[in-house]
Amino acid sequence: MKKAPYLLTVSLLFFLFTSPVFANSLSINEFVVNSETEWVEFYNASDSADFVKNYWLDDDLDFENDGGSAKKLLTNLITTSSTYPYLEIKNFLNNDGDYVVFFDNNGNIIDQYYYDSGPGRDISIGRSPDASGAFSLLVSATKGSANSLPPTNTPVPTLTPANTPTPTKTTNTHTYENKFSKLLFNVFYQHTRSFRHFFTG
Known about the structure:
With 201 residues, the protein is of the alpha+beta class. 21% of the residues lie in helices and 22% in strands. A hairpin with a 5-residue loop joins strand 8 and strand 9.
């Protein structure tokens, strides 16, 4: 019996199931760029987030050369919530557009996002749902906890004009009665004159 393939399989399984980082288990989850204190929150599916303190945050895709701000080691990562650890920073991300890049300790990109315009003061950009959803503006910032939902589109109210009553055509009965009376009088008068002329010659 050959033991080498068996030992290799066991070692591979041990690595896969004991590694603190799985596929999609660690990602950028939410961040605020225009605030007194900027911050970036991560999603971590592991029981502990202490290992993330050995990872890096940057605002460009080149781990070796800093094209923008100097990359930051996540030593000061706040891990009160192991699921939603976050880093508070100052003057790191541009308000009007920048990269948010998450590197592991070997310089490999774990996650990244590029925003091309400013979201507004104290407005957060984040995933909804957490970890797997697409990035969008969120209803409220939720540093260190589960993300809020994106704002729903408020339908524009349709203005319906009030019913305008259709004008009713009224008949002036009095006017018609007067005209009819005058007509009868004229006919009677003409016949009376003809009759008088016939007898008086």
